[in-house]
Design goal:
Radius of gyration: 29 Å
Order of helices and strands: EEEEEEEEEE
Distance between the termini: 65 Å
Number of helices: 0
Number of strands: 10
């Protein structure tokens, strides 16, 4: 045999011979990353992992203290679920995206409630270190349940 390590080679048949070809499935690298650095961990761990083509790999995202899982970047089954899968078909980078949990910096409540309404001030810092102050008016018999801010 001219070259036993080549995908094609030449065999000279000058007597009875046995020729065996060994095959292996293609392998690809899945690289796990996180944004921002320190925002959390992944399973499999951050770094490069080699799998056979067609392998279904379970992946998980676990946020670090003070962070929240946002979504996955890359070809995953459910980009909005912290636990999902990726089917290996090529080299791929899969990123767990996190954001910093908003922090309430200050609240002010009235010392005493007089009349039918009172004001509450809340100061919040978002994941980009922007500070927002909300001045809210509540009325007796009504309870504020949630304050939201949409990112557009």
């Amino acid at each position: 045999m001219a070259n036993p390590n080549s995908a094609s080679t030449t065999v000279t048949v000058d007597s009875d011979k046995t020729v065996t070809a060994n095959f292996a499935p293609p392998q690809y690298t899945i690289t796990m990353t996180v944004i921002p650095a320190g925002g959390g961990t992944t399973g499999p761990d951050i770094g490069k992992h080699v799998y056979n083509v067609g392998t279904v790999v379970s992946i998980t995202a676990t946020p670090a203290e003070g962070y929240v899982f946002k979504d996955w970047s890359g070809e995953v089954a459910d980009p909005n679920s912290a636990s999902t899968t990726v089917t290996v078909s090529s080299d791929e980078t899969i990123t767990a995206n996190y954001y910093k949990r908003p922090v309430i910096l200050d609240t002010s409540l009235p010392d005493a409630i007089e009349g039918n309404e009172y004001n509450v001030a809340i100061q919040i810092e978002d994941s980009d270190s922007n500070t927002f102050t909300y001045d809210l008016t509540e009325s007796p018999g009504w309870l504020m349940i949630e304050i939201g801010r949409a990112h557009v």
